[in-house]
Design brief:
The chain is an alpha+beta fold. It folds into two domains: about 80 residues, Glutaredoxin, CATH 3.40.30; about 120 residues, Up-down Bundle (Glutathione S-transferase Yfyf (Class Pi), Chain A, domain 2). The protein contains nine helices and four strands. The protein has a four-stranded mixed β-sheet with strand order 2-1-3-4, covered by helices on one side. Helix 4 runs parallel beside helix 6 and helix 6 crosses helix 8. The longest helix has 29 residues. The radius of gyration is 18 Å and the shape is globular. The termini are far apart.
Length: about 240
């Protein structure tokens, strides 16, 4: 039975971290909101599932994953749920907990990147909060971006199993998510990210290794990969790309 992934149909957003894991694993899934309503799919189907009063464990927001009768929300938890079945995490408890910790840190950085263009409120347009966005983006590019990337660089360098992955000697969902994080940062803050990555060779090499994986590379070339745009988490506003 195919998994049902429920997420907004026109953006990568947080759902893309789940898509990458499913694609890299070769797991069967349906991207429900992007399907046709006459086939019982579409965004309305996802919304009905969220609003169903019979659901004992309703998800707070998309993305969420449906696996038979099981509904799993929150990107990091979805990845954790999928990982053991599709061998995207090491077996030891220490490795599993460490991988989840890294994923939650990636989620923190994703939230901070989003808040550069919506620092006051997500319900207001970017154009209504430009001064605050510039102030937030300046701190993000000069302080937070280098701090996060340096931490990932250290993790890879200190990995006892070698410097090819974040955890252990095999691909994990954290590797896939770090790849997506770097992709998003390069889109939203190309100059600032290039400057920081110049001092993070292990992160760059990991990103490139993930991109070259056959299943990932095929997905990136396919129409299933939604292009970045200014409705998602990572948005390219050149005035917010602060360097120096």
């Amino acid at each position: 039975m195919a998994y049902e992934l429920h997420y907004w149909p026109t953006i990568q957003g947080r759902g893309e971290f789940v898509r990458l894991a499913l694609e890299a694993a070769g797991a069967p899934y349906v991207d429900v909101a992007r399907g046709a309503e006459e086939k019982g799919q579409g965004l309305k189907t996802s919304q009905r599932l969220m609003d169903d009063r019979k659901q004992i464990h309703p998800p707070f927001a998309m993305p969420f994953l449906k696996d038979g009768e099981i509904l799993v929300g929150q990107t990091a938890v979805i990845l954790q749920y999928l990982a053991a079945e599709w061998k995207l995490v090491a077996r030891s408890e220490q490795a599993r907990v460490w991988t989840h910790q890294i994923q939650l840190t990636i989620a923190d950085m994703v939230a901070e990147a989003h808040d550069t263009h919506h620092p006051v409120g997500i319900g207001a347009y970017y154009e209504d909060q430009k001064p605050e966005a510039l102030r937030r983006a300046t701190e993000f590019c000069k302080e937070r971006l280098p701090k996060f990337i340096h931490w990932f660089e250290i993790i890879i360098a200190r990995n006892p199993a070698g410097q090819r992955h974040l955890v252990g000697g095999k691909l994990s969902y954290a590797d896939l998510s770090l790849f997506q994080l770097i992709e998003g940062l390069r889109y939203a803050f190309p100059k600032a990210t290039a400057s920081v990555l110049a001092k993070a060779p292990h992160v760059v090499k990991l990103h490139d290794r993930v991109a070259s994986l056959p299943k990932v590379a095929a997905y990136l070339r396919s129409e299933r990969r939604i292009p970045f745009n200014e409705q998602g988490i990572f948005r390219c506003y050149p005035e917010l790309d602060i360097t120096g």
